[in-house]
From TrEMBL:
GO molecular function, one term: volume-sensitive chloride channel activity
PANTHER family: PROTEIN TWEETY HOMOLOG 1, TWEETY-RELATED
Organism, as annotated: Cirrhinus molitorella (mud carp)
Stated name of the protein: Protein tweety homolog
Subunit architecture: Homotetramer; disulfide-linked. Homodimer.
Acidic residues bias spans: 485-496
Segments traversing the membrane: 47-72, 107-130, 274-295, 302-321, 452-473
Cellular localization per UniProt: Cell membrane
UniProt keyword Transferase present: no
Amino acid sequence: MAAIATVPNYTPSLWVRLCHAIPRLDLTLQTRDSVFSPDSWEYQQTLLVLSSFSAIALVLSLLVVLSFLIHYCCCHRGEGGRDAEEEEEDDDASGGHGYSGKKGRGICCVTWVSIAAVTLCCVAIGVGFYGNSEANDGMYQLTSSLLTANYTLASIDLLVLDTVAGLQQSVSGPLTSMEEVFGGHKPALVPTRSCRRLSERVVSLLSNLTLGRGLVPIVDGFYRPNGSESIVGALTPAPPSVAPTLSPSANSIPAPFSPGWAANTLMVNEDYRWLSYVLLLLLDLVVCFFILLGLAKQARWLLILMTVLAWLALFLSWGSLGLETATVVALSDFCFDPNTFVLNSTHFNSRTSTDILDYYLTCSRKMSSPFQQILTQSQRALSSIHSHLSSLERDALPRFPKAEKPLREVQQILNVTEGNFHQLVALLNCRGLNKDYVDSLKGLCYDGMEGLLYLSLYSFLSALAFTAILCSLPGAWRSFHSDSEDYEDSDSESEDPFTSHQARRQTATGSQRGALPPFYSYQGAGWTPPFSSAPPLPTPNVSSNGNPGYENLPLSDRQSPPPSYSPSMLTGYGGSQSHSNPSHSRNLYSH
């Protein structure tokens, strides 16, 4: 095997080198090397061990959350009776707001912890969106480079087929007619037969020019491409921007490796991966938004629902972190030395020489093209055919006019063949395919690697955030007063249907601190209303002596709100009372 050289214009990034340097252990805790070999069971064990760390972190998160739940359920229940008097004193000290005592400080602490955890989750979501976009950009560059390489390979195949088909057509058609025309004229027959032999020689040489695709003969002497061994599969040569998109077949990786098959498979898988991460990010975003809404509105049912979704998000975060860890490490092993894997993989080197792969992967100036000999011999043969046809045109056509038409046909086929041959020489140069190879490595190992690292950071931060949320939310929604309790308390204190819900809640809060005496209460004969200057209200009732009088019921027994007076009315009533009989007013409220 040829010496493996480094890929020009590509250097493993710092993140690739750091992840590649991570120690590897198998299931028996034995050290393994970091050579990328996905088909090896030992290498798969090392990835499983690295992924198991996220499972361990998940178990630790569950233990932490369960410990907090036990603390809220057991400890607070035991301290409920002892803290009742302290809560009443705290409410009195806080003026009824309930945020300056011990319980108020606890509620405030739990709320701010939840808000901090939600903020951390929002930061993680932003990191996740950026990482998902970077990974998608890297995969797009990879698939675009693969489609470009597939277009180049398909063009090479079609040029070879067109050249071979044209030469075979010239051998079976015009050259045979020329031999029949020339008959026994040896000076003209010898160059014609030389053209036939040279054409067959070129067909034989180009048939051996293969990059993983063979040309197999059929019964009548012609050649056709071996469809089962095609390197381009079913894709026709078209620019990458308009190349047809084929759904990957259910079979395994074709042998030899097909860039077109790989590009279409990667595009389909990348679409599913991108959509899955977008849905996961939207789930986290919805959970964070409604948690903030529930804390602001003090909606207990909403926080309980978001707690259930937070459990789901916690499991998904740790699970995605395990997959991302294994993917990042495996990708770093491949990107650290991609040529080694490509040269040693049977999917790439099947029916393709290692020298050919090494030539296109390294594209070193010190290396000569493995097709140089074939192309040189084919070029010489085509030049010889052109020389023989020129001599026949100069010497034989004046004597054999009937040979002009087949001679012109052979010359036309030869011109097309030489044009195809020059394009074939340009496409077989290593610079085009090596550029596609380097671009695919940069897309996968630069942008793709960076995107996966950001996604790993997102999964880790979101897992921590949801762990903190699950620890703090039960303490938050336990401290909220439910609406049903408020309405029950307000109904027991006030039956006025016109009293607002806020007034009922204030009434219920006041009833918990102790019943206050009513503002208008009957205290005896010596009690006077707050506005003693107000005149008694007239009533259609008549007194015992038949004269119109005033109602003798106190104002507190009327089952109606007290009257309100403007300042002008109070001034007028005050001036009129100075000339009235005060004993008469006292008699009104003494009955």
